[in-house]
Amino acid sequence: MSDWDRPWPAPAKLNLFLHVVGRRADGYHLLQTVFRFLDYGDELRFAPRTDGAIVLATPLPGVPAESDLTVRAAHLLRERAGISAGTTISLLKRLPMGGGLGGGSSDAATTLVALNRLWNCGLPEAELQRLGLVLGADVPVFIHGRACFAEGVGERFTDLSLPPAWYLVTVPDVAVPTAEIFGAPDLRRATPAIAPAEWRPGTGGNDLEPVARRLYPEVGRHLDWLRARGPARMSGSGACCFAEFAAEAEARAALAALPAEMRGFVARGIDLHPILN
How far does Cα 152 stand from its chain's mean position? Predict the structure, then answer.
């Protein structure tokens, strides 16, 4: 199978903790977090075009094609590489929008990595990460492709080897805008920073969670249900929440116990982006 014929995975991520440790003069928040990928996510396919157009064959409801992160990523890469190639992008969307699982960022990162190879651009990973940061703070980690402790606005990485784990991820029926959470006046913005070597699995919280719970009570309902069964957190700026389990059977038993009006899925934590395997 050629690279043009293959599917290109765009996995979900979880923030195992997420602290806001300050704010830059330009308004960007300084973060500390641990990113872990899941063996579950979106999938992209690319087809070559001879007319130089970049076409999204599967537009998302309510998102103009020119605003879609995959289309923007393709244009950005093409401009940086100084080429005129075209492509048709097909996206199989599994990850919820506004869910805190990095779906749009993951799609953009996969687009950059895939088209860099398919178009023979030859840009190094560091340059792809710089392009990704233009598109969003979470894009570079998907290009980096390894479980890591992240700092800055989410672009400085210290790689980690994490214990095997399975996750029950619940999907509240709300889309949480990241900008709304970070713009809230009651957001905690001064959690003391730690060194990457100080972090241990299971420690830390999510500083964005209290704001998300206040603005979107459904997020709190999911967290409360999960926490009645063990430790749980919200991922990113929400809305998705998760609980960690040592064994797949335990995670699937928790999924089976979800109330009928709640949605969720089970996935395994992975330390390496599937593109890098």
Answer: 16
Which pLDDT tens digit goes with each residue over 174-206?
A: 999 999 999 999 999 999 999 999 999 999 999
Q: Which pair of structure tokens corresponds to residue 17? A: 């903790």
pLDDT (mean) for 235-247:
96
| DSSP 8-state secondary structure symbol assigned to residue 238 | S
Answering whether pTM is above 0.85, one says yes
Which sequence positions are flagged as catalytic?
13, 138
For the chain, give every domain's residue range.
8-159, 166-270
Fold assignment, 166-270 = Alpha-Beta Plaits (3.30.70)
> What sections of 119-160 are H helices per DSSP?
125-135, 139-144
End-to-end CA distance of the chain: 16
The CA distance from 170 to 62, in Å, is 23
Q: Quote the CA–CA distance of 1 and 12 in Å, as a whole number.
A: 25
d(CA 223, CA 218): 9
Please say whether the structural domain 8-159 has been given the CATH code 3.30.465.10.
no
Of 51 and 67, the one with more pLDDT = 51
